[in-house]
From TrEMBL:
Lineage, uppermost ranks: Eukaryota, Metazoa, Ecdysozoa, Arthropoda, Hexapoda
Originating gene: OXA1L
Name of protein: Mitochondrial inner membrane protein OXA1L
Organism name: Anoplophora glabripennis
Top-level taxonomic group: Eukaryota
Keyword Membrane: yes
Chain intervals for the UniProt region annotation (Disordered): 274-296
Amino acid sequence: EYVHVTLGVPWWTSIAIGTLIIRLCLFPLVIIAQRNAAKMNNYLPQLQALQLKMTEARQTGNQIDAARYSQEMMLFMKEKELNPLKNMIVPLVQAPIFISFFMGLRQMCNAPVESLRTGGLWWFNDLTLPDQYFLLPIITSATLYATIELGTDSAKLSSQNMQLMKYVLRGLPLLILPFTFNFPGAILMYWVSSNFISLIQVGVLRIPAVRDYFKIEPLQKFNPENLPIKPKGFREGLKDSWTNIKITKELEERTRLDDIQFHRAGRGPIVKTYKYNPTKQTHPTKSAPISAKKHE
């Protein structure tokens, strides 16, 4: 609203400018995430080797080796200054901002703010109403898919769970498409603007000169067949993830039962495993006196 009143521009322009300002403020966090993602990609073979050993140890129930490999991975990541959580900085910060924009624009449309009725562009002139031609929802889903595809490709999701998440994210635009049909044009205008900015941002950060300027390491390319963890399809990856979950639950249940049995053995009565009590001394049996005959 401040941009709309101060600059005197239409609402669709105000929404786009406001989105751009917010994204520029978040750009330093994007650089931090990109630097970390590039490092994790370049150390992908070492990380996958440790991850594979840790997974195999857990599946076989060898908790000692699993803990040892987990410690080795933590030390390796600390030494190389790797942190998977840094890749989540931007989504975690963007989420409350997106919700704030969503709620604010929806309230303005429900009020409604009269200037929003003529603040649109081309076929969506009234920003308080849903797009009657469904073009904005389709553009929103298409740009969201492109953003996810380019973003996950540059992030190089490596682990099996991350690969599964990549497939889930790919289906997200299709899942939300029916819900966006009823969104007011103002909300979709913000969403489309944010998606286009993300696409431009991803494209610019792929330029080698730009990466050098922001001190982002070049991405090394690895042959997937030479990596410790081989690439898998959606169905096979889902099956392996389900198998790993079942094995983990079985091991946890086995550990729980062992703990219960251990505590019972320590607190309960001693289970008799001998025919006699070895802690008690037994008296030697009295043998009959031996009579010796005098031989003549």
